[in-house]
Amino acid sequence: MRKLEVSLPEQSYSILIGSGLLAKLPNLLEMQGVQKQDRLFLITDDQVAIHYLEPVRRSLSESGFSIDFAIVPHGEQSKCVATYESLIGKLIEAGCNRKSVILALGGGVIGDLAGFVAATYMRGIRFFQLPTTLLAHDSSVGGKVAINHILGKNIMGAFYQPKGVIYDVDTLQTLSTRELQSGFAEVIKHGLIWDHSFVDWLFQNKEELLSRNSLYLTEAIERACAVKVAVVSQDETEQGIRAILNYGHTIGHAIEGTTSYSAYTHGEAISIGMVGSAWMSEKIHSSSQGLTKMTEELLTHFGLPVKLRTPLSEDKLMDYLRRDKKHTSTGFIFILSPIYGQVRINEHVPEGLIRQALHRIGAC
Asked: Collapsing DSSP states into helix, strand and coil, what is residue 21?
């Protein structure tokens, strides 16, 4: 088992990564301060539940914990007000109080949704992230929790840290190929923004990673999480450096929103967004020449798209970008790369350049 520590002024917690951790969940929770009398409420989706709900529920029950659960439909559409309100009702009906603990068993959607429920139920109760996707290595760390509005992604949210992250890499064996590939987008992002040696390692070990070798996946997750921990520990609420974690996300979120979260997975949208960001980086920073080609090559190796499958309206994408949280009254903010393996915050990026980048990725 690998262990990383997230050190924050108000609250610190551990990220545990390894094989067979769900089977050890009762002991791991007790080691992190959860007591048998603390009612547990597990939130998962209908796909994850097929594989893991009953084993986890049975293990916790047989160890003396009281546990209730709720299953929501899989997919981004569950990050909505209606699902959120329904879950709050289920917590009330289950008798959950301020000492209760929410377990978020699933991918990024479940982590965001369950985390937002935890942040707001009785003004905040404890929760643990139990990621079951590769993509969730990113969203489960750092305390960003949220639900969507029809006009924007993650518009209703909070910074609310989990009490711990318990990441059983065995769960990645049940992912579809598309889900696994999607997860590599965020892994690659962490290398591109922080550590070029990690990017080189991904190039060299893509075969082992795509074949789901547990040792290689554990190392990839640990190294990617280590980047996020380093950033979040410096800037918990995104007042400065944490914004670099949004590399590729501004365009990516616009792609997701414009297609109603139905045509692309989150990782696929972020993959295309990173190509757009790499292209803009080359236009603004002469030191980043060749970045777009390298980025496209790496993403393609991991089965990720580098262009829109079908053209989207450039104007509709721009409308979405104007509603993005990172857009200010003085212009567009993008995370761009002056050199391979590093990024910086660029304010006042010209709309004309953004439109060119959108055209480069296939917008019309």
From this structure: coil
